[in-house]
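Query structure, 455 tokens:
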């Protein structure tokens, strides 16, 4: 048994003795969520041409306790998830595929089921809360937990959040491992393309609500032996009228190499999202983006631009290429990652060196038309000036790409199926034919969600 798991079990036992304390049970919440996903990814051409068509159902149990009484209150959050493959598969399914819905077995076929159990012990003092465990799902500018397929990604470590200073939220933590959206195996933290991992991701930052309309952000993160990253953010909402507003959202990332990545050690190279790098394998990037959203009634019009620096691609946590046994074994299968850029889209990410992306989206909330629960959106992104990767026939050339995404969401508002939600998403991506690893694809997802609250 891992030391962290043993320590968690001992702490759970201690908390169980205090379970009768006022607040621990009285403020508890428990729920079971189900999600059924139909996933169709049609790669249209090239050596990767194939069609992945899978259907799966996932169940997620969440228990969130209150806190025991006293100056320092203690509590426990627990989560159990299980997934079931319902049919379909990938013709070229492999354990390292970041595009899987269902994990791969040793022979490359989809498994019938997979599961995991996790928990976080928590403590609260005044307005400061600490969570330690292996069911963490941070949603921060420097790390966004992925929940885009069937089951959510999870992390192991500790996160401290404090709101003791008025209008300021401080967040800090350290993470050691991650488990992917289609995996039952914990693995080290890493970056795209690296064969080896790290067991130390440290971060700290603050969100300062300067006024009710203006929020400023700063975060710092360090994945040991891979990269250091600074983030600056500004969000401002100008309320024009009761049903009319204008939102400005500005984001800037600056990332540089750290430790073994800086030294060029074997297994620690970053593949720069299969794009250009001033020094191949090394993290060296600055990325800025701006988004403006005008809302009028149920209408929302969004337009923005993003510039990825010329020296290398954008970097974020991504464990998809990490191998077991210190880089010598098979892939862990922990692919699939999200990040805090507007271009983290359904199919593509527009995050290679030099990419200038202009994007827009229109969405409508049909509640304003008398149909509550129904929403629709369509988005378009176009990237230019993508720098060709050196060492290939594309060196010194520039390329372009585009993506169009559409989605419809509906949640039943009353009756025995109240809360049952349906989402239909469709995306199309096209890139220049000579663009390295450009994968022209059409993708469809149909998702059914339902949550039943026990407490």
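Result returned for the query:
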């Amino acid at each position: 048994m891992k030391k962290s798991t043993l320590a968690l079990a001992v702490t759970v036992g201690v908390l169980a003795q205090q379970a009768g304390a006022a607040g621990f049970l009285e403020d508890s919440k428990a729920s079971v969520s189900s999600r059924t996903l139909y996933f169709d990814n049609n790669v249209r051409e090239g050596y990767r041409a194939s069609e992945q068509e899978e259907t799966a159902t996932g169940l997620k149990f969440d228990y969130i306790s209150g806190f025991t009484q006293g100056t320092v209150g203690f509590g426990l959050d627990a989560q159990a998830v299980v997934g079931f493959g319902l049919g379909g598969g990938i013709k070229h399914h492999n354990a390292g595929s970041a595009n899987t819905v269902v994990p791969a077995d040793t022979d490359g076929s989809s498994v019938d089921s997979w599961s995991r159990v996790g928990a976080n012990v928590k403590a609260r003092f005044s307005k400061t809360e600490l969570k330690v465990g292996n069911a963490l799902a941070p949603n921060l500018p420097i790390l966004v937990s992925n929940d885009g397929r069937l089951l959510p990604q999870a992390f192991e470590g500790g996160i401290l959040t404090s709101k003791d200073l008025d209008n300021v939220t401080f967040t800090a933590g350290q993470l050691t491992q991650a488990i992917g959206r289609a995996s039952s195996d914990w693995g080290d933290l890493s970056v795209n393309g690296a064969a080896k991992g790290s067991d130390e991701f440290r971060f700290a930052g603050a969100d300062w609500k300067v006024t009710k309309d203006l929020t400023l952000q700063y975060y710092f993160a360090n994945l040991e032996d891979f990269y250091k990253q600074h983030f600056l953010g500004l969000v401002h909402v100008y309320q024009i009228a009761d049903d009319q507003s204008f939102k400005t959202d500005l984001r800037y990332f600056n990332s540089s190499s750290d430790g073994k990545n800086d030294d060029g050690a074997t297994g620690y190279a970053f593949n720069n999202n299969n794009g250009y790098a001033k020094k191949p394998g090394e993290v060296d990037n600055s990325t800025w983006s701006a988004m403006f959203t005008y809302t009028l009634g149920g209408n929302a019009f969004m337009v923005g631009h993003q510039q990825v620096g010329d020296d290398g691609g954008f970097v974020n946590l991504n464990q998809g290429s990490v191998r077991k046994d210190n880089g010598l074994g098979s892939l862990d299968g922990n692919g699939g990652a999200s990040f805090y850029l507007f271009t983290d889209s359904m199919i593509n990410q527009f995050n290679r060196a030099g990419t200038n992306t202009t994007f827009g989206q229109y969405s409508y909330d049909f509640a304003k038309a008398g149909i509550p629960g129904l929403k629709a959106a369509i988005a378009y992104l176009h990237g230019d000036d993508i720098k060709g990767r050196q060492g290939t026939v594309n060196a010194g050339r520039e390329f372009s790409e585009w993506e169009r995404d559409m989605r419809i969401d509906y949640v039943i508002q009353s009756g025995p199926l109240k809360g049952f939600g349906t989402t239909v998403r469709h995306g199309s991506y096209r890139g220049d034919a000579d663009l390295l690893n450009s994968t022209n694809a059409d993708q469809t997802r149909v998702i059914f969600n339902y949550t039943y609250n026990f407490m």
